[in-house]
Amino acid sequence: MTTLTAAAARRAALAATGLTEPRPSGTPNRRHLGKVLDRIRLLQLDSVNVAVRAHYMPLFSRIGPYPARLLDEAAWQHRARSPRLLVEYWAHEASLLPVGDWPLFRWRMRQFAANRGRWPAHAVAPELAEKVRACVAELGPVGAGELERVLELRTDEASRRGGWWERSEVKRACEWLFAIGELTTGTRVGFQRHYDLPERVLPGDLLDREIPEDEAARTLVRRAAGALGVATEPDLRDYYRLPPAMSQAAVAGLVEDGLLEQVEVRGWRAPAYKPPEGKIPRRTGARALLCPFDPLIWFRERTERLFDFHYRIEIYTPAHKRVHGYYVFPFLLDDVLVARVDLKADRAAGALLVHGAFAEDGVDRAHVVRELAAELCAMADWLELGEVVVGAKGDLARPLRAEL
User: Fold this and answer.
1) Which run of H or E residues covers position 106?
2) Distance CA 298, CA 290 (A)
3) Which residues contact 209 (CB under 8 A, 6 or more apart)?
4) In this structure, are residues 54 and 44 in contact, taking their beta carbons and an 8 Å threshold?
5) How far apart are CA 370 and CA 342, in angstroms?
6) Mean pLDDT for the chain?
7) pTM of the shown model
8) Which strands form 142-143's sheet, in the order they lie side by side?
9) Rounded distance between C-alpha atoms, residue 77 and residue 97, angstroms
10) Residues 292, 339 contacting (CB under 8 angstroms)
11) If we measure between CA atoms, which residue out of 374, 54, 291, 70 comes closest to residue 191?
12) What local confidence, expressed as pLDDT, does residue 120 receive?
């Protein structure tokens, strides 16, 4: 069995996720977007918009300043010359996936439909679900609020007096139909999901494609292994939130077939796995601010094992108990997470605010400050913010302010 050092495992992980590739010299285009998606396979969606929404940031971390419309068009527009690249579904939480991956989640849709998902069938009135689907078929893409208004108008006065559904039930019905694959996201307006029928969003050949559950699991585990580089079975399982038994069976089968290689990583307690074709560069040259939902760091146990970096998002921690801040971005330099930066985009003031900047132990702080200042300026330019304003918190705040 091959034995890897912890440093080699880090370099393999960074190469797999695309963070060792040089950024485009010009303005990134749809081809660059596709190249990143071929590597990481999904973008997690999250409603927090303190600095920038989570699905935009992993692309910036890998290809630098790119037009946000590239992702918007890939995810929520369909044109003859530039067909939709992405579709929304539950993968690693709510995510944007390549449209071709939609059939790989039929098993999950069936689980939701069989009352084994997070929206149990008994929580949604069948009559309401049918009314919602019919209304979306007529009006879509349409938001839940508009559906509530239309459905209420179409309900006769006697029915409204006797048992009109609560507004939250309409939204629940929309999400239930989304979970079982009978609705999807046609577009988003101000980040609000507008529902549509899958047949109006996805290529026709995908709608009826059935993939056996075990085959889908093997494909998803291979996707995860390709995106992670080196990973334990729980790491692979977490990428698409697979059930343990499904993931374990897939990993065992892929190893037996030579499609995954079991390796030992020094310092890791559990066996690890890597794609046979996975690369381990001698050096990385990476530099990136990573949002809390970047695929490299979203599984906190792996982040700690891979980088010796204990990281928790502190949004739900009371302000007086926060250690590093509200929305903290780890800063990657070469193959080390060297700092933490609490960021906020103050769009009214036209400034990227650095509420706090904290160095990790043992790093070359002068080098970190130079590289971090450059990356913050690039991020501010990308967000069309005129300046970077550094607050007082953290041991990097003063030197970073001076550098900027």
Assistant:
1) helix 106-113
2) 10
3) 103
4) yes
5) 17
6) 93
7) 0.94
8) 142-143, 192-196, 184-189
9) 14
10) no
11) 54
12) 66
